[in-house]
Amino acid sequence: MLPRTAQHRSTTLPRRGAQATPMNDSRRISMLELDRHLSQSLEQARHAPVNVQRYGQPWVWMLSSDAWADAARWSTLDASGHPLMLLRQALDARLQPWPEAAMSSLAQEYGEMRMVQRAVLLVALRAPATVQRLHDDLRYHQVYRQFIGFDHGMAWSPLQCMCLLQACATPLLQHCVEDTLARVPSSLLDAACMANARRDDEGGTMATQMGGRRARQQGFSLIEIMVVVVIIGILAALIVPRLMDRPDQARVVAARQDIAALMQAMKLYRLDNGRYPSPEQGLQALVKPPQGSAAMPVTPYLDRLPADPWGHPYQYQNPGTHSDIDVFSLGADSKPGGEAGNADIGSWQL
């Protein structure tokens, strides 16, 4: 909307980190004129309240001399090398008319049908979250406007943007978009998506989804498969032995607990009898007295003698090799010595 012709008002604008200073050469221009002359500066100005002030109706944009100089610098930039513009060149060479059934929801008032197709493709790449966001992008973002083919004075209303978003959600039009983007070199499409991601983190665009589909359709190369196999082999070599040792580790812990209980019962026996059981008595002295010995206490020292986790009886040695007495298990092989699961487990290790 063009500003009303009115007497210029002097305005003081705040600056970050400094007191407000009056602008000596502020200019009053309309949004469309600013879009035509200053290119991307309006997008920057909309997010920089330092240089922009809105008052009254219609909108009037006030720019300081610094902002004006910065806008002039932006207006001289050439957008032809932007990834979206390179993608447009590739699309124009491959863009075919879409079925009337797919385009029926888009009225002729949108303009040239080829321009409408580019707008639909831009929505697929950009995936604006709201109608207002799409309206702002098509009105202020110079690269997006050049991608579609808008002239300097052209702009779509919020209602037209809403209809465009609704049309882009139809399955038939989505199929046309996917088929068109599939003809474009993936490098151009990826570059355009990356440029889009750097500008906005909203993600989830149709182009990203199509990139995933292409990757799935292409499958895996032989080198990728070999790398995966090698990684799986390394993980198996590290993890499987540990998993295999888990049962033996659990049996060793159980054997040490049994031996600790037997040694505690031996100490109680010694307190009552002044000595440890003889070799002939063995561990049986903890559950029943041998013939000719003193009577057992009211309750035995143990209810029963446990077997080791491998099902073998625990060994008793008096006098012991490592201490006064030794109580031990011969391990899985039931033979003296051994390593790992076959190693002896004794009271001297507690």
UniProtKB/TrEMBL annotation:
It is a single-pass membrane protein. It is found in: Cell inner membrane. The chain crosses the membrane at residues 219-240. It comes from the Eukaryota. Keywords: Cell inner membrane, Cell membrane, Membrane, Methylation, Transmembrane, Transmembrane helix. Residues 1-26, 331-350 are annotated as: Disordered. The keyword Transit peptide does not apply. One of its GO terms (cellular component) is plasma membrane. Residues 242-348 form the Type II secretion system protein GspG C-terminal domain. Belongs to the GSP G family. NCBIfam families: IV_pilin_GFxxxE, typeII_sec_gspG. This is Type II secretion system core protein G. It comes from Knufia peltigerae. The lineage of its organism: Eukaryota, Fungi, Dikarya, Ascomycota, Pezizomycotina.
